[in-house]
Protein 1
Amino acid sequence: RTPRQRTMIAEPEAKRAKALDGAGKERVVPVTLLSGFLGAGKTTLLKHLLENKLGLKIGVIVNDVAEVNIDKSLLSIKAAGNGGSVAQQDVIELQNGCACCSLGEEFLESIGKMMTRAAERGQEWDHIVVESSGVAEPREIRDNFRDAMVTMQDVLQGTRLDTLVTVVDASTFLTEYEKRNRVNQRTDLGADDYSETNTRQVVDLMCEQVECADVILLNKVDLTTPAEIELLK
């Protein structure tokens, strides 16, 4: 999903109290932006993060909560009491302190809401992870986030852009790299509000997703040969 900036009303100070660390300094929550085509394995990665047993409280913002398929036995009492129906809720909380919510119209607004929720429950996030749509352009998302840190400080208070991660399907990357079709011809790779009119070549977007990333996760390596893995590296 390509974010669009707009003027927003900041949350009241009482709802967004500043979190302080042991030294009395404001605690800043790192935010990771997760990119990759539909089917690359982003959802599986997010599920592992949410179900972590390391005590990390991770807030995850996704395109569709229902697709994450969280184990009902791991839901909080509140969520379980609601039937544990992920599809019926915008925010799902787990017993380990993690939570997953649906991406709103503006991904920056969704981060602000996630921070507000942490303040309301009195439990800060260790990390926030935002899933972009399969055909989102990570460079634009990154730049919009950085601009918003100046123009929308109240919304993003207590956060910082930390890492860009791209999940790559190792079993299809080399084949897709040789193709010259366009984003609006490949709905199987993901869709957003602009993909129907997006005539950018898929290979260009693939290269951007890799070049912008701080971390590249090669997934489905079991479906490739050692020679293909070496070429990918």
Protein 2
Amino acid sequence: STLSAIDRGWRSYVHAKKRKGLLIVGRRTNLEYHGGLLHNDSMVEAMGRKGTLARADAEDFFIFSRGAVNLSAMPNFAVGRAGYDNWLVDYGVKHLETIDATNSVLALHLTAADGNAAGHREGPDKRYNVELMRRAQSWPKFPTTLHVPMLTVVEPGGGGIRFTVRRHFKKENVTTKLPARELPPELATPAHLLPPLRVVDFAWERTKNRRR
């Protein structure tokens, strides 16, 4: 799976303090859905193919290595409202080994019509996180998954996953240089493939057995 592949690649370096702690982030796949339960992998994957990948500034899962960050020291965010996810990604890019796993993780979000924008609904706390960051002068410099300097790549045909490095982020002809990160040596070879791909969602992990 994505998690076990990352664990094999980084565990010894993190434990030896040769690398910083890890943060794995990614985006969800949105689908408005009014049907029944999904009972097997094929149904989940079929729904994933119908869905739409969320925006790069709307991150939806955050997996930390143990002890990588003191979460109690975070600003007192309203989780679920806009902005806290961008702060977490920015923190990871600046202070940790952060990996964008969007390409190799299917985080399927089945929702009613308003669910995909629920964090932006009107309410007294709609801009709470934004104002909190503004007052603390902690506005994120690297707020999206496209600012994350390492990412997973799925090989054509589903043979496996590999890792690569992203050096720059470009938007509207403005290029931002990302913090320099390098892959562990054994994962740095472009042709290096990790064992069979697993698709992961929030509910369960399911193994795909494929022939190379």
Protein 3
Amino acid sequence: LTHYYITMSDYEYSEEDSYHYSDGDDDYDQEMSDNGGGSDEEMADDINIQIENAYYEAKQFRDDGMSTESIQLFEDVIVMQNERGDELKQLKWTFKALKQLVKMHLQRQAMGSGCEQGIQATLKYYNRLLDYISENASSSSPNGAQGLTPNEVEKGITSLLERVSSLTISHTSSSMVMIGRDTASDEKLLRDENMRHILLVYEATLRVFKPSTEKEIGQEGICINDRLWFKTNLKLGQLLYE
């Protein structure tokens, strides 16, 4: 059995040894801190996957005819981006979700379900979409996340305007059948009402994307897009002519 007696030299050595151990512990702490950084990245990846999954699950509910569940999930996607936007790699999910909500309510109109409610819901979601574009249309955000590009905005809005024009007008015939009215005067009233709602959509679009001109300085839109504004005017002119 070996006895160990503490001497002053042993004590000094012990302090030195403790010092070296402390250095090693600092390295360990630094390594743990580095791992913690990796953990944050994993958490960021998780929220990106989570919001993407929620979006596609909402689309699946829509395709399965579960409109109530689909609408709620699309709204959840919007909430998730609002709350966790600084962790996302792309800031397009609210834009995509609002587009789907507009399409869903346009489809409801075309099928004649909840006519007035469907029209009001369509206008509500479309205006929300325009508001979002006005606030977020840029190539990137301060934290480096990919935002909306002008091309994506133009493609999305053009697609919705085509649906608004075709589905809302075709809705006249289905509405006539549902309410049991088929006289020429009744059809004209419904067409006029539908056209009024179409014009509200087009006017809101033109206000947002209106370019600046020498004669109207200070009256340009919030999110200037010359090409989209011109195409919208052209489409509206064709619609009124027909």
Protein 4
Amino acid sequence: FHAFLTRYYDYLSSRADVCLKCSCNLRGDGHVLQMDGYQYGTQNFTCYDCMNKYCYECEDDLFGCYIINECEKCERIYCLHCEKVDLCTSCNNWYCADCIDFKQCFRCDENTCPDCVRGVRCCNTCCADKISCNPCADYGDDLSWCGRCNEAYCGDCCNSDVYAVKFCDVCETLLCGQCRVKKCKEGGNCCARCYQFAFPVISEDKERVQAEMDELKSENREQRNEINELKRKVKDLAGELAEE
């Protein structure tokens, strides 16, 4: 493979390639084809799909960004005209459309890569389809972050005391309900205001646990009734067989 790359390198170095947009000369000696390092074998300035050549300084007139970009995952280079790469607006990395499954921000429709999704959507399943990009999450009012567990909660979840992220102006802490309860249980610097925030969380959590227990009891009764009905059918069937 290295022998082939060496011959291909000599061939590219003998050519006078120019950028398709600005017509500037593309340096061939040691630049068009990487012969060492972590980019060994990469052909620079060249789109992997259409093989057109562009310099790294030219920007697309329509999109306002560089014409060719490297996929952060597979390290292939594509031009914007082939529409093979897209930008994650959260981490500003480019990825092939074939390499990852982009998620769209529900507010601005911008792309978010899977690595950035968890930090910009509610940690609960209530709105799993509502994914926010970092700019919308930072400047919007859709999400609130707990200063202890660093989880994000949406506005709907913050209507519940268990998940509500509230700011204590006494000890200056921004915590979700569950982390507030943990802080108070640990004692220490838990102020009276924090205890006021924690009390309804404990009450609501108790009601939720009680409701889950009642549901389990109801399911248990239904299963016992089904078992008794099956026993009755088996007994009747055994009687019919004995009579025969």
